[in-house]
């Protein structure tokens, strides 16, 4: 999270199983890094997208949806097991 905040960036999560939908949003491949070392699936691709269906789960202000969901889940679990 520290790197995301200091670099003023965001972490994006795509919906699992939606590769064909996500692929339709890619308008241009701008560049690719480590293609020879990692191969096509694991290379680092720089792409231009439009209407990209993702959710910001960690933002440049230090807010993490992962942490929020974990805290809420633990609270719900505690309620369930105390019944």
Descriptive notes:
This protein has one domain. The chain is α+β, with helices and mostly antiparallel strands and 83 residues long. The protein has a two-stranded antiparallel sheet with strand order 1-4. A two-stranded antiparallel sheet has the order 2-3. It has 4 helices and 4 strands, in the order αβαβαββα. Helix content is 40%, strand content 28%.
SSE blueprint and pairings:
Elements lengths: L1 H5 L4 E4 L4 H7 E8 L1 H4 L5 E6 L4 E5 L6 H17 L2
Antiparallel strand pairs: 1-4, 2-3
List its salient traits.
two-stranded antiparallel sheet, 83 residues, single chain, 28% strand, alpha+beta, two-stranded antiparallel ribbon, 4 strands
Backbone shape? elongated
SS elements, strand count: 4
Helix content: 25-40%
Strand residue percentage: 25-35%
**Low-confidence spans:** none
How far is it from the N-terminal to the C-terminal residue, by CA? 36 Å
Overall pLDDT level: 93
Domain unit count? 1
Could you say which structural class the secondary elements and strand pairing correspond to?
A: alpha+beta
Q: Summarize the main sheet.
A: 2 strands, antiparallel
Question: Total helix count?
Answer: 4
Overall radius of gyration: 17 Å
Order of helices and strands: HEHEHEEH
Strand order of the largest sheet: 1-4
Short note summarizing the structure:
This protein has 83 residues and is α+β, with helices and mostly antiparallel strands. The protein has helices spanning 2-6, 19-25, 35-38, 65-81; strands at 11-14, 26-33, 44-49, 54-58.
